[in-house]
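Exam prep: given the inputs below (a chain plus adenosine monophosphate), describe the expected output before reading on.
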Amino acid sequence: MPKAVHVAGAMGARKTATEETVGSMLRAKENQVWQIAPSATVYDAVSQMAQRSVGALPVGIITERDYARKVILQGRSSPHTLVREIMTSSPVTVTPEFTVQQCLRIMSLRRFRHLPVVQDGNLCGIISIGDLVAAIISSQAFIIEQLETYIAADYPG
Ligand code: AMP
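Solution:
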């Protein structure tokens, strides 16, 4: 009868993607939080998003979707519309202890792709759905590598 394969030990201390926390993800990435004032124009907000290669700025929060839905589709002009007119004033936030799985559940249920990270009342980062996908892909690559090492190793007897 084949022996049971216990891969957990081979994974070392690394957590699986869904167990990884927002705090460890923020530590691993360049965690500059670009912000915009509510009194700025939407044009400036969209310019900053393009310049920084991000899809949202915490203010509240304003995202590319706000621009698409509340400016373009409504025939408004971005230099003449203020951020405060289209932003979401009270975004759903998470703390650094939240896991990838919990963040995905929130984004999926609420249908948004960004979560500001707040600790003790201070904004300490923003997590996008892209960050969560990257964490899952990285974890899967690690597991595959560990399994390949395990399979290629000499049979312990
Ligand atoms: P997104 O999918 O992140 O581009 O956002 C879609 C809509 O949800 C936009 O109106 C955003 O302002 C809003 N939104 C984005 N993130 C959040 C959040 N964490 N809490 C509440 N609303 C949000």
